[in-house]
Amino acid sequence: MRDSIQVKEIFRRIGQKEVFVYCFWGATTTAVNILVYMGLKWIIDYRSANLAAILTGKVYAYLVNKRFVFKSICENWKMLLREIGAYVLTRGLTGIIDFVGVILLVECMCIGKNTAKFFMAGIVIFANYFLGKRVVFLNRDRGTKNGVSFRKL
Questions:
Q1: Which letter does DSSP use for residue 61 in this model?
Q2: Distances from the Cα of 39 to the Cαs of 50, 103, 134, in angstroms?
Q3: What share of the chain in percent tops pLDDT 90?
Q4: How far apart are CA 135 and CA 125, in angstroms?
Q5: Integer Cα distance of 54 and 139 in angstroms
């Protein structure tokens, strides 16, 4: 009985660490997204700035989530392509939610552009963690040294 309690405690601590690490990298991703948006909205339309910010943030997020948060190592190129495909689809979905959400908040609800962007960023962070953990990064490093990872590419 005591062994099962220790195992549960280990899993609880791993989960807490992963959430903390995800929050840290999620915050840096959000900062990249918002900084690109803030910089570009002065020289191009806010909708185009938002799209560029979302795309930049998605690429950055894939790299840091794969390497530092979920520590995903794919056993072969097929698994890596599956992971990238799942990432593109799920982040595409949250990117659309982000893009449309900002426009709806600004144009239909008369919320300020910056407030709308920050609000949608919060929603997207939660959705991305859930989708990353449950759909995208399924190939965790389990001691395999032969897998395909960015360390080897």
A1: H
A2: 10, 18, 33
A3: 44
A4: 15
A5: 25
Name the amino acid, one letter, at 8. Answer: K
Residue type, 123: I
Q: 63: Cβ–Cβ under 8 A, 6 or more apart, which residues?
A: 150
Length of the chain measured in residues: 153
Phi then psi dihedrals of residue 74, to 5 deg: -90, 140
pLDDT tens digits along 106-150 = 999 999 999 999 999 889 888 988 898 889 987 665 444 444 444
Cα separation, 29 vs 70, whole angstroms? 15
The C-alpha atoms of residue 47 and residue 100 are separated, in whole angstroms, by 10
Cβ–Cβ under 8 Å, residues 15 and 22: no
Say whether 152 sits in a helix, a strand or coil.
coil
pLDDT score recorded for residue 153: 44
